[in-house]
Specification:
Two copies of one chain form a homodimer. Chain A has about 240 residues and is mainly alpha-helical. In chain A, about 65% of the residues lie in helices and about 5% in strands. In chain A, a hairpin with a 3-residue loop joins strand 2 and strand 3. In chain A, helix 3 packs across helix 4. The structure holds a DNA duplex (30 and 30 nucleotides).
DNA sequence: TGGCGGCGTTCTGGATACAATATCCAATCC
DNA sequence: GGATTGGATATTGTATCCAGAACGCCGCCA
């Protein structure tokens, strides 16, 4: 069973809206199309290299091609697709080098995000965080774990009053989600294998939550940074992720 | 006399293309419109809050509104304009908080960029860099200095083989250029005032170039980071920049 | 047999035409 | 007199239509 079928509306922005006054800015069809495609790419229904025909998407969503085209421009800026003039749109391929680049940037930005978020986390956030951690620990399916893990981390950043920063970080996660999925299937045995009862991932989550609750910025910063760096370096051994 | 009238084609990407094989990807009108508007915003011909009417732009460039609309989507993703459904596009306003956010991110990303760029700088780069430094030192007009300074710094990063990183950094500079311009006019006296013959800015440039030529990554990193932080903190005293 | 060039199909890029929404102003009501 | 509502107008959002580029197919020829 796969969670988060289509609309994994689990972005940071949405998370922010959740406890604020939701900005009821009239949603145009362009936004709907963009959301639809973004979700399809992030959850893996559309795979890297897949061609995206405007007409097909338009028909699928019952609109004309115009909103589709605008949505494609937007997704290109987010790095999710690549747009080749007169040729078409394809789901962006991320090679080992770009993956490394993204992790480098994450390594420098996410510690900042956790520092900015940490002092602003409320009881509501922690309640959600604990729920997620518990849910992750009792979920078996690796794909589901991966999506929940994404939600968990974005949630820990979500209290930071830095919209641009959060948007970027969400973009990083989106761009790499499907590769992380492959990676997880390859290297996952090691990552998930329970020593005693708690996997490495679970342990990291608990340590991070603990640091957040103690408002211990330095420790939180370190956990985040080290985790990203370790993942980045580990990657070198799994180049086949990128076929 | 104002340099860089319209097309200050001084982006990092262009700088990169300069020494590589220029990707002759057929340029579509959307790109032309985007370039045109981007330049207009960065060089200050369009000011924060200014409304952008699709029809007007279309007429100005001799196209229909369709390419304009797609360009606007793109610029919105870059943070240069804000797009309100059924209301219109306006040049983005950056308030003190967002300005601070951008500088925070710059503080974390530009040292990374200089580190990645430093080992790859070639004689050609240095030649251009020296030219720019010299040109800056003999330029009087503050606006021109500012644009040249932008080119200088982007150039020092341009050797980094990290396209996403460079694009982000360029976006930061673009978003804030006009505010930096105001800031420079307000606080500029102090910044430009020559003690002896060399201003603070000039000194920083020389130190940075020296570190780059010595391939001294730590020093270069430090100069960049400290410069950005100092600017960020100084800002607190000039809130009137944001009207 | 294998490469190469013309031709048609398919799809994208852009223009034109129409629908929907916001904005502004005046008339109306309390 | 001030707030409110209704409509005219300007501008955006979307659909339809046309031109042109890319890609594949087929036959031709070395």
């Amino acid at each position: 069973m796969t969670l988060l079928s289509d609309s994994l509306e689990t972005g940071i922005t949405v998370a922010i809206d959740a406890d604020g006054a939701r900005s009821l800015a009239t949603e145009t069809r362009v936004d709907q199309v963009a959301r639809h495609l973004r979700a399809a790419i992030v959850n893996g229904r559309l795979k890297p290299g897949d061609r995206i025909r405007q007409e097909a998407i338009a028909a699928e969503l019952g609109t004309s091609r115009i909103p589709v085209r605008e949505a494609l421009r937007q997704l290109e800026s987010e790095g999710l697709i690549s747009l080749i003039p007169y040729s078409g749109a394809r789901v962006a391929r991320v090679d080992a080098e770009e993956y490394e680049e993204i992790y480098l940037m994450r390594e420098h930005l996410e510690p900042l995000a956790i520092r900015e978020s940490l002092p602003r986390l409320t009881a509501r956030h922690f309640s959600e965080i604990h729920d997620l951690v518990a849910q992750i620990e009792r979920t078996e399916d690796p794909t589901d774990v991966l999506d929940l893990d994404r939600r968990f981390h974005l949630l820990t950043y979500s209290a930071a009053a830095r919209p641009r920063l959060l948007q970027m970080i969400e973009g990083f996660w989106n761009s790499t989600q499907q590769y992380r999925r492959v990676f997880y299937r390859l290297a996952g045995d090691r990552l998930i294998s329970h020593s005693g009862n708690v996997s490495l991932t679970h342990m990291e989550h608990r340590l991070l939550v603990d640091a957040l609750e103690r408002r211990d910025a330095d420790t939180a910063d370190n956990i985040v940074r080290v985790h990203i760096r370790r993942t980045r370096l580990t990657l070198a051994r799994y180049r086949e992720v990128f076929d």
